[in-house]
Amino acid sequence: MQIVVVGGGMVGAACALALARTGHQVTIIEAGDSPLESAPTEQWDIRISSVHRANLDWLEMLGVLACIPATKMCNYSSLAVQSIDGQRLEFNASDIALPTLGAMIENLTLQHALWRCLQTESNVTVQTQTTVESIHWAERQLRTVDGASMPFDLVIGADGAQSSVAKLAGIGQRGWDYDMRCLLANVTTEQEIPAATWEVFRQSGPYALLPLTTHQACLIDYAPQGHHPQTENDVKERLQRQFRSHIGDFHLQQWGHFPLRRQRALRYHAQGCAVLVGDAAHSIHPLAGQGVNLGFADAQALVQVLQSASDDTLERAFSEYSQMRVSANQRMMRAMDLIHFGFSSQQLLPRLAIAGGMKILEQVTPLKRKLIELATGY
Ligand SMILES: Cc1cc2nc3c(=O)[nH]c(=O)nc-3n(C[C@H](O)[C@H](O)[C@H](O)COP(=O)(O)OP(=O)(O)OC[C@H]3O[C@@H](n4cnc5c(N)ncnc54)[C@H](O)[C@@H]3O)c2cc1C
How far apart are the first and last CA of the chain? Predict the structure, then answer.
């Protein structure tokens, strides 16, 4: 099939690569520059994704992991969540006989690696610094803003939360702002950092650590809108207060804020030839680092249903794709809401329920194992 993927971010690029490997002709339309124009710097950028084990295996099979330098990928083997009143739940890779639970990978590096792999595929064309102007669905012709016109059998919207494909296909979105911001800060530490990621939940929002190297970490601090620090000194002061007891002295390298929004497409396909993946279909609270993981799972499901699809059977393939992904994504979104609202609740009951739930999970091995499997994508 002739497939146009709109958006060459992590999900769009991975989806395009997997589709090209199964023999489709793929064109990527990307609004920004090609990531290959600039090599990732030596320092870690603050946009980092925790990619779970199952998706790492998929990226490895695609040959993408081999293009990621060891300096921009940090495997982790333990994950802990803790409530402010001391309830703790810890998951270890050894609990499910795996060497690691997943890895922290810099977003820019992952995108760069994906595009390097795309470059080697003769059936992939990329058009950068351009966007879609219009799509004639009946004639299956897409027009870009710079006047290029292209025929297609299928258009994949991988163009993020403000998806132009969703709009042009008439797919509505529903969502809300969490009224919170997320502070991300990369630091170098004096103490050694174990290969473990952890998160502590407070009423005002969680704070967390992602390990990057033995002496580098990304610190994450969520705060209600209007309560986040604005200057470098305020950021330092706030992070010191929160993290010093966990990791000792550290030096701030770079930081930034991100707003948090939940959004989902009302359907994942329309017009008989348009389908959404990744944040174009769902954007989720990042507290459990699941956004890109869900997007990669969408891409794998889509590639699977398209394997045996033809023009006549596209609708059936889309229904299958929706069945595979809509409820799985919504379950994860609801779980994130439950955690977010449960911990931030002023009411005693939801907080006690969560504390009780954590205690039960810590003690009931099969339940805990199930949760680890979910966190690793198995
Ligand atoms: C603070 C924060 C931390 C996060 N941490 C994690 C984590 O640890 N683990 C995890 O799994 N997820 C995490 N996420 C979520 C993750 O970053 C997103 O789910 C992921 O980036 C979505 O990828 P995507 O390719 O679907 O969309 P995007 O990353 O939004 O990419 C969309 C691409 O489409 C292009 N584009 C946009 N509009 C157009 C257009 N009209 N035409 C052509 N191209 C267009 C853009 O330039 C971009 O390249 C986090 C998110 C946030 C905010």
Answer: 30
CA 368 → CA 59, 279, 303, 330, distances in Å?
Answer: 26, 28, 31, 21
Q: Which band of pLDDT confidence, cut at 50, 70 and 90, is reported for residue 346?
A: low
Please give the Cα distance from 349 to 50 (Å, whole number).
31
pLDDT tens-digit readout, 25-46? 999 999 999 999 988 889 999 9
- Pocket, ligand 1, Cβ cutoff 6 A: 6-12, 29-32, 49-50, 131-132, 158-160, 164, 182, 184, 258, 278-279, 286, 289-293, 295
- Assigned domain for 350 exists: no
Task: Decide if 116 contacts 67 (C-beta within 8 A).
Answer: yes
Rounded-to-integer distance, Cα 154 and Cα 54, Å: 27
Q: Atom 40 of ligand 1 has which residue's CA nearest to it?
A: 131
Which residues have a Cβ under 8 Å from the Cβ of 233 and sit 6 or more positions away? none
Q: Is residue 239 part of a domain?
A: no
Tell me, what's the pLDDT at 302?
Answer: 98
Residue 139 domain flag: yes
| Planar angle of CA 259, 203, 360, nearest 5 degrees | 115
Q: What is the helix (H) or strand (E) element at residue 331, kind and residue range?
A: helix 314-344
Q: What is the extent of the structural domain holding 141?
A: 2-56+107-175+262-344
* 294 is a domain residue: yes
Please give the model's pTM, rounded to 2 decimal places.
0.93
- CATH code: domain of residue 19: 3.50.50.60
Q: In the predicted model, is pLDDT for residue 170 greater than 60?
A: yes
How many domains is the chain partitioned into structurally? 1
CA of 347 to the centre of ligand 1 (A): 34
